[in-house]
Every structure is written in structure tokens, then in C-alpha cells.
Predict the structure.
Amino acid sequence: MAFERVLTRNVGKPEALTYKGYRQLGGYEGLAKALKMEPDAIIDEVKKSGLRGRGGAGFSAGLKWSFIPKGKDKPKYLVCNADESEPGTFKDRLLMEFDPHQLIEGCAICCWAVQANTTYIYIRGEYTKAAAILEQAIKEAYDAGVLGDSVMGSGFKLNMYVHRGAGAYICGEETGMLESLEGKRGQPRVKPPFPAVVGAFGAPTVINNVETLCNVPHIIERGADWFKAIGTDEKNTGPKLYAISGHVERPGTYEYPIGITFREMLEGCGGMLKGRPLKAFIPGGASAPILKADQIDIKMDFDTVAKAGSMLGSAAVIVMDDTTCMVRSVARLAKFFNHESCGQCTPCREGTNWMELMLKRIEHGEGTERDGQVLLSICGHIGGNSLCALGDAAIGPVQSLVKGFQDEIDRHIREKACPFPHRRYFEN
Ligand SMILES: Cc1cc2nc3c(=O)[nH]c(=O)nc-3n(C[C@H](O)[C@H](O)[C@H](O)COP(=O)(O)O)c2cc1C
């Protein structure tokens, strides 16, 4: 499949790591153009492009920016979400490690559009290499006058800071992230008010994912119509990174036009590992309900995946072959969500624990015939009943296990053991 790499065009070009090299590759032209535009015109262009958030929810970036109140009575902030903790997701890391100035440029354009003078890049604690690369790139951007008191000589002031997290999934949730940024325990806030009105330090704040912001320089430089021409339709536009892992020959981060089919994606990464049959795949990170092999021709965009009962989420594609035990896989995900639940909301705190315990029990051959229905009932109590979307995320894989793979649950119960050959994953 022939296509132009946009977001990853500088991957494999080490010179992009330096300010000078990035400039020579055509970098910062989008920012230079943006600074000559009215801020509202930038917001309109981003809206028109159809760019939707790449962090999980797929919300219109331009619309989000338009919610930031005008006026100068309070400072405004951009917080770039670089927490990237959704299991299976490793696309933002690539962007930060190989093309840090692309992100700085995207952040700077966003700040000009909403008239924010400060950006915080909230990066997951484990990303030490990406954090160091960003710090160095930011330093060079200051030295070159791209950041600081007068961005590219425009008189617009912009400061940028890298803020390192401490390894908690919940700090990727936007309001948990703001709490953490402010030095508090990373527990999500009650919404409304939304961050666009009351965000970091009580001030209006845009929160966008790394990949979302990396798209912005290209939209400004090449225009919304160019961007809109890529993808499935008006609502699913632009280039997209997919982090592919699991039973494939060449796992990795791949860039495609949004809406490529899963089959094409699979071919692009060398096919199934050792040519084994596909059993199932997760299209959008651990939170996304599992799809089955017969959905191989699905278009991997926001709306098509949603229509199929799952979500594109962070576009972390986890591929499973016929040797995979679905009960064990979902039990492992349930263990993750139980561990990462912040404990603030009772349904999420208690429910994720019960789901993990029950799934482990089934996996160990000690399940009962009622378990599938009990699991669905627990999901029903968690869904929509927690302050943030972690609860909703935790039930996706479990519901899809019971609804799509009941036969595997039954076999575990009937045979009083896991029918798949493997060592015991859970020791207790
Ligand atoms: C539990 C949880 C974890 C999340 N983790 C991330 C993350 O690591 N990175 C991210 O960009 N968004 C994450 N999100 C989504 C953010 O809350 C938010 O929607 C996103 O950063 C907005 O940016 P976007 O509109 O550009 O996608 C998470 C959401 C939840 C509920």
C-alpha cells in the first residue's frame, strides 16, 4: 500500500533530533506560518481538518481548543499528555524519541491558537530516554528563540516544561494528570467543570495527546483540505500511528492513513507469527473490547471500530493467535485494572478486584456455571458509575470475553483446568 509517511517522516534521520537538523528538514515552517495567522483562524483550520484526539476518546481537537475562554484575566495552559500507559501502546514514545521538535512545534502552535503562555509535557516516569531527548530539544528551542520571551521574533511568550510522572496509569486520565502535575495524589476530578474552564492550577487548560499535537504543524503548513483527504471519511481523517504487538512477525509502531483495514495492517507487519491462525485482536489498547478473527476486514478508524462494538482508543493493536487462552489474557488485563484503579470510587475499586479474582478462579479450573453472568453483573455495576473512564475501560475486555468467548469459559469449567498448554500464569 503506497502512502506518504507524515508523522514518522523523520524517523531514521538522526539529524531531526537537533534544532538545526529539524530546520533543514523543513521543520518549524508550520509555526512560522501560524504566527502570521489570527489565533481563531488556526482553531478553525484544525476544526476543519477533522483532527480527532489520538489519546483515546477521539474528541475534535479544534472544538476542544475553541472551549478555552478568551480574555486575559487568568493564565492559560497546554498540558501535553505523554503518559502513554495504556497496555500495548508505544506510539508517543517513538514520536518523542525520534522527532521531539515536531511535538514542540505542535505545542507552540496550539498555545498561540488558545493564547496560552505555558506548556507542560506530562511524561510517564519510565520514559527516561524520551524525557532526556525532549529536555535537550526544548533547551535548543530556547537557544534558537523558538521558545521564550518572543517565539520566532513574534513577541508571543511561551515557556515549556517536561514534568515526569511516577508510573501510575491513572495519571494519564486528564484530571488525574492535572492533580499529579499540581503535586497532589493523581485522583481524577469531578467533571464538570471541564479542564477547558478549570484546569491546571484552576486556570483554563487544553489537554492533548502527543500524537494529536504532532499532527498540528502539518495541518497548518499543508492545509485542512490536504489532511481531510487522508482517511476513511470526513469524521476519520489524517495519518495515524498504530502500535502493533502480540503474535505477529514484526511488531512495532506503524504509520498508515486512518481507516486502513486490520487485514492490510497485519500484512504490513509480516503476518501472523509463524503463520498461525488469527484468533482475536484488541484494536485500541487494553480498554477496548476484543474483536474476533472474522472481523479481520474492519477499517481501523474511530467510527467503524465503535460500530463493531469496540473502540480505536489509543490504537494499540494486540494480536492473538489460536494458542491464546482468552480467559488468561483477560484475567491478566483485569489484574492490571485492579492494580491501577485509584480506589476513589467504590464500584471501580471493588469491582475491578472481584473481576480479577473471578477470572483467576476460572483460569485455575475452579469456576462455576454462574460465573459468566456474575461477571456481566459486576460489569453492569461498574460501567457509568465511576468518576473517570477507568471503570468503563476495565469492563470492556471482560464483557467481550463473556459475550464472545463463552465456549472457552465453559471449557475451563468443564475440564476443571485451563485447556491451553502453558505454565500457570497466576501463582495465587
Ligand atoms: C485511565 C485513563 C488513562 C488514560 N491514559 C492516557 C494516556 O496515557 N495518554 C493519553 O494521551 N490519554 C490518556 N487518556 C485519555 C485522556 O484522559 C484524555 O482524553 C486525552 O489526553 C485527551 O487528549 P486527546 O484529545 O488529544 O486525545 C486516559 C484516560 C483514562 C480514563
Notes: The chain has 17 helices and eleven strands.
